[in-house]
Amino acid sequence: MFSWLTNPNLQLGGMILAVIQVIAALPWLFALDPKGFRNTLRDSKSIGYFVLAVLLLGEGMAFFTGYRGDSTKLGIYGRVYGGILQLQLLIDLFIYAPYFLTLAFPKAGAVALAAYREGWRQPLFWLVFNFGFWATWVAVVLPYFTFGDDFKMFKQIGFDIIMLCGLIFGTLASSISISEEIEGRTAITVMSKPISRRSFLIGKFIGILMACGALCLLLSVNLNLALVVAPSFDPINEDRAFDPMPMQAKFGQDGNANNVYATDGHYGFVQWTSAQMPAGAARTFSEGASIWLAESFAHQFGIILVFGQVMILVAIATALATRLPFVVNLVVVLCVYFFGHLAPVVVRVTENSANSQSTSSRLIRFLAQTFDTLLPALEFFKMSPAIVRETPLDLWSFAGYVATVSGYSLLYTTIALLVGLLLFEDRDLA
Q: What phi and psi, each to the nearest 5 degrees, are found at residue 353?
């Protein structure tokens, strides 16, 4: 039972795991009490207590991994560790990203920081989060009758739920916040600091968008957990719950779980962890953590596509909020969303129809092509072609596609914000 005390591999592995968790916790501990944190760094006695706590945590990790060394569930405990580590890193990101923005752009960053904090405090944020959280778990247990592809269908629905939640919150928050500040004359007070109209509008957009990003990232952790659990709800199709992109992230280019040490030069998270950690239970535990992080990494490409679509629609809502009331703005954004998805389909149908030369078909095709040209091409942001397919999709090829689509979303967002700035310049605020 006490063999872990004399096992150097367990001691070293436990210490490494403890130090990683402590390093991830330091940024948000500093944010909770900056003054107390600085005083601790100046007090040698407090530093001694801190080092002792890290050593005790390392011993605790060594004891746990040694005690569970023969357990088949050690990898599952490692996944729990990886999930906790991911949440700590997300907390660090949520706390410090806005402050870095204020350092780079003081005026617009100050407005963005206020909008970002307001987004977290709104009941709407937590209402939408709870809806997305529980909708994902309801989707886990729903039967899809897809003859063995239930897992793929659930994964596609999971990304759609995250997109819907980000879209609902971002559109409502931007429409309500900007319209209320303009109609309630609060914007005049803000811009008398002095803050220009450009800084006000861009700051509002960035702050609301960061809150949308936080919502999507939190729901992505929930989706990652649901994807791990989902196969156990359908034992018949459990062996078909295979996703090639997370497998590539975990086990390298070939995605072979039996190839612990890659020989083709394309290392995955698990190979890298195996090379860094000492052999034994600590390595098994850390490999479970790396499997969680690798799966989350592969799923983030889908979250980036979701976020790109949300960013475009929030930019449109922000631009229209300078002139239109909340209800009209919401209807217009919903129309943009539906026609953005529908227009390419209508164009293809009218071009291939038997009566394509009739007057009605030509008129419909003209309207569809107009919408397809002016509205954002939202079909590029779908995850379904990457999930529901016969041949496996290479992770890094898909990453290149995601980068291209992200560039398109940034370009369209910039155009939408420029239109919003033009509309806002002539708006009477008095």
A: -75, 155
In order of 34, 144, 157, 208, 306, the CA distances from 134 in angstroms are 36, 18, 13, 23, 19
Beta carbons within 10 angstroms of residue 98's beta carbon: 21
In whole angstroms, how far apart are CA 74 and each of 10, 22, 78, 348?
14, 21, 6, 52
Write down the residue that tokens 């130090």 correspond to. Answer: 19
Backbone angles phi, psi at 270, to 5 degrees: -70, -40
The domains of the chain are located at 1-74, 105-425
CA-CA distance, 102 to 113, in Å (whole number)? 7
pTM of the model: 0.87
Token pair, residue 304, equals 């980036």
Give the Cα separation of 208 and 191 in Å (integer): 18
pLDDT per position as a tens digit, 102-138 = 888 888 888 888 889 988 988 999 999 999 999 999 9
